[in-house]
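Q: Can I see a sequence and its folded structure?
A: Here is a first one.
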Amino acid sequence: MSRSAPKSPAMPPSSPRRGLALGVIAASTLMIVLDGSIVTVAMPAIQHDLGFSSEGLSWVVNAYLVTFGSLLLLAGRLGDILGRKRMFVAGTAVFTASSLLAGLASGPAVLLAARFLQGVGSAMTAAVGLGILAALYPEGRERARALAVFSFTGAAGASIGQVLGGLLTDALDWHGIFLINLPIGAAVLALARPALPAGRGLGLRAGADAWGALLITAGLMAALYGIVNTATYGWTSPRALVPAAVGTALVVAFFLRQARARTPLLPLRMLRSRAVVTANLVQMLMIAALFAFQVLVALYLQGVLRYDAARTGLAMLPAALAIGATSLGVSARLIARYGERAVLRTALVPLIGALALLTRLPVHAAYATDLLPVMLLVAGFGLALPALTALGMSGVDSQDAGLASGLFNTTQQLGSALGVAALSTLAAGRTDTLTGQGSPRAEALTAGYHVAFAAGAGLLALALLAATILLRRPRVPEVAAVPSA
């Protein structure tokens, strides 16, 4: 049976509902991104209040990360089949309810269960949001502006989350970092029904490839579980190696199945697009470097410079403002004028410079001269992410928009997990070596961060190389002139 695109009523370009839909999706994305970063600043308070062990505390972040990252691809495909609006609304409801559960948690088990459910709700919502936008804004400068707004919520939201996390933790307590989601979630739910376009999806007859769904979900979950365990047990520990190897084998089995399945979960035709594949690869490398940058800078501020939670969050604020200024202010115009490829390559240069500067951080740093220039250079992220988002959704059929959105978000989560695991392990290894040799703790920590930031700059350099080589515009053959009669 042939498949048709999801049935969504067309919205005229001037329709106010389309702008409202963009606002709803942006608010939902901001809520999800905030939740991923707002927790990091409040971790010491959560550990003290609920009695988490050091190992158990890491799962306040990891329970969310593993479920979110592993379910995105499945949620994106189910959105195409069952209807993206239906998936978006259901995911927002799950996320909002689990945020209430997290905010009321009185013990570690309840908080971890709530974080697991938050990851489920986030995957359901994030997997289809970009697909809905791609259908509402099919082309042109309006699409570039919409993607800039969407990208801003992802790019700057993490920094804003750290600011809010610090302020809420100091002013109230850690419960507030979860309860703040309730009014946002309620507003999104109230506005989503009238704002988002209706659509029944492809229908269950299109097939969901249950075995493929099981393979990719279990594979990503096992791989992410292994990756996040490296931060606690190291890369050579069986607790990291075994689940990572099992997950990799399951993902390989998934792709083998997709080549033969009648109704594949991930049609391999999507991977024939060089722009889509390269955008996801470059994004994974870039996010790996920059998410780790965010985590490690916060640790440096608190562990070496002895900043408190609120001051740490405020120290990251210039990065959020710089990203917002470029993403919302100039990215759409630059992309419309020069194209996604040129903007992406140019934006990666200041990001490499930012991490290179961090390799020279002193133990007794002055914020204005040692850290503020770095925060301003991170503005390149506000240009790079909109360009990558446009490339990641380019040439995708409307029937696959939800899946492409899920794929794009999946590589983002994989990049986050890989970056934090790899760069944190490098930093910890160097710190332990120097501490064992008798170096003062602050100097050993700083030297460890230097190694991690250098590795992050290397990842960004690889991203620039991939973007330069793989995203060349195809040459258009010249047409010989036909002599006039």
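Q: Show me another, different protein.
A: A second, unrelated one:
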Amino acid sequence: MEVRHLGNTNFDVIMKCFLSAFDNYFVKMPTDHEFYRRGWKAAGVQYDLSFGMFDEDILVGFIISAIDQRQGHLTAYNSGTGVIPEYRGQRIVKSIYDYALPKLVEHGVTKCQLEVITENEKAIKSYQGIGFKIRKHYKCFKGMVTTEIDNDFILKKVNHQDMDWDALSNQDYYSWDNQKESIAKGHFDCYQVWIKDKIQSYFIMNSESGYVAQFEVFEDSAKQWTILFSAIKSVNRNIRINNIDDRLTHKLKAVEAVGLENTVDQFEMELFI
């Protein structure tokens, strides 16, 4: 077996391996190839800096790498790692990282980052063995927004480039796929929630799917959170929110108050190279 970059590997071959690796996973994974093609494009995946383990011409394991300048580091974000069932127990992920890390350093990468479900103890130990350390604890939610709609707001849809990102709070608490750099390349709508002549809050979501990438209030109160979720509900009441940092206790309380279910928790792990 040998490790090679995935720049010359057909996307359908990668997806066949990916879906096999994530069959019977902790959460049910989408099977639509276009979902991943779009998502990985928004994340900034570079296939020539993504790597796979090949048994002759068969892809049996992989690390999908998004590369971007984030928070002061050229970072390789692991958008997906997996090994097909028949090849597990052979330390393939470690072998891929042993090959990949020098290649990433050659390209100027100084940090690697990934997310892993907290229940996946085997994977966590594997990453820790490579040198990754837990940095953040995230909570994920989904469900129907049950709050009664408070109509005391005006909803304005704005362009991504019109968002005053420097003035928006908690940007360092968002995970890779929810950061402004990924949002700019994804299929998201940006909304401002106004009361009279003042912006009260904002949210960024895929209006069709109900996936909410960012949401914040500018004055932390139960009333303002209720208005924000009323505005979200007016666009799509069936929503999904990934990776709320567990240090944001008021935000978590507000999410739980509108009836969303905590589906899974994740760790963010990082490795400086």
